[in-house]
Amino acid sequence: VKTERQNGRVYLIGAGPGDPELLTLKAVRALGEADVVLIDDLVDRRVLEYAPRARVVPVGKRGGCRSTPQQFIERLMVRLARRGHVVARVKGGDPFVFGRGGEEALVLAAAGIECRVIPGITSGVGVPAALGIPVTHRDLARGVTFVTAHTRDGNGPDWAALARTGTTLVIYMGMQRIGEIAAALGAAGMSATPAAVIERGTTENERSVIGNVANMAGLAAAAGLGSPALIVIGEVVRLARTVESAPPQRLSA
Ligand code: SAH
Question: Pocket of ligand 1, candidates 39, 42, 89, 171: which has the most ligand atoms within 8 Å of its Cβ, to mutate?
């Protein structure tokens, strides 16, 4: 019991964009070791098949109702690890891409708790890929910019500056502001640039619309698309659906 106490630690795990088969082998191994799993609500519950020993604590953090405050989650991780538990903190996508994983790692370090990060496939790469959209392409986009429309201070990014980069823009958490984003990028000369809005990508419930910056907000509204969704903007969107992606599958238990 004593040695177990000394081995409390936290795995910050990225579960990938949605399809549970996009978990990494390392994530599966860490889940198998876990005594407690703290799982975000974007993460498919089927990943828990790999955590047979663990107590499961849902810690939803969706904007709006019934969210678990960040501070509560951080304190809980610290407390559990101090008691000697192996804690798996499971987040959607990659834990360090718009996932507050960086904040959590700092809190754990300050508390002197061992923290191991297990990267995951961020939705900004995996979700477009599932539609056949490569976020870079030698002829169409020399780079990609990941940006959130939702910032702590309430100010959006400098859309005109982003337009000038000529990179593919992948916008996380943008649905509430899609109209504003379209207007700002349109004003920066991008009205005709191809755009895709993809909800719940890589899952059985994936839905998407493809158009351009000028019409993307209207198309998304007409299709009833909402969060969680990504907005992908750039010439690479023209390549959508030119290749088949591997469909999500049920995991065998
Ligand atoms: N750490 C996560 C991002 C968390 S922020 C990652 O690396 O992917 C949450 C935002 O991610 C959502 O608002 C949405 O913009 C995006 N997102 C996450 N999963 C998604 C999915 N399956 N389909 C579309 N967008 C997704």
Answer: 42
